[in-house]
Amino acid sequence: MLVSEFKIKTFEEFLMRMYTLLGGWPSSNAVVFRGQAKDWPLVSSIYRANNYELIKKYSHFQCDFDSSLAYRVAEENLILEFYNMANLSKLKVPKIPRFLSRNNASFNTLNFVEKLEKWPLDDSIELMALAQHYGVPTSFIDWTYDFNVALYFAVFGAIKEANNNGKYISDEIVIWTLPLYKLDLINSNSFGNKIPLNFVTPSYYDNENLGAQKGILAYWEETLCHNEKVNDTPLDKKIETYIYSNYSDLDCIIKTANEFMIKFLIPTSECKKIAKYLYNNNYNAAFLFPGYDGVVKSIEEQRMLEKFIIG
Fold first, then answer.
1. What is the tally of structural domains in the chain?
2. Which among 201, 163, 197, 164 has a CA at the least distance from the CA of 182?
3. Domain range spanning residue 249?
């Protein structure tokens, strides 16, 4: 199986599976993780329904909004605005020559994107990763090298919803795992037909939040066919479809990539136990969001813990 799903009964069982997966403590950088408060589809933020109106606004032209072209134009405009505002605020941003020389009054993003053959462009990957981390919708997906960080975002996302609504939004939280070394094995045995899944690790030196969270971002490199419907297929399905469609020696690939991605489903009834574990090991907002904002978030977390964990 390329993508496997395991329903976990207890947090202790999950820890044992992590121990087996990683081959012992501490974790290495050979595996990345993603935590979700609910079993949402594994899609990037630009394709999520709550961002539809924002993306539509930034496409700036009338067309079939389900097209790949509309989404890429919107994404280009979003990261350009992020770049301009950050630069005007004297924040450090990667130097992108096409942004530095752009005359915003006359530059036509549509004409520019229509000529592109792939997405994203190499020169904007670092900027897109930075923008994604601070909430700008992009075609990137957040991951972490540390499964405890993934647990934090899943568990406290679930607890926050429970605090607001009086109950959990789901019966289970989700932890995704993706062994990067298996991706390398598949690509090394693919005779040049590599999976277009790429990872980028922004500079931790310039971003304390990403450093604390051991963040890494994934993106699917697209060959642009602008008249086609945008490909918002979840990442796990994209990988399976690509492999089954592009590799002739499937038996060898499947054997090499067995459990290439694993989705662990953990009952929300274990959230109290996991939250205690995380706080006892200093995985809290003050640690993961260094600075005053993180301190305030940590105080809010403690109030939630008093209601749902300690009580």
1. 2
2. 197
3. 1-44+141-311
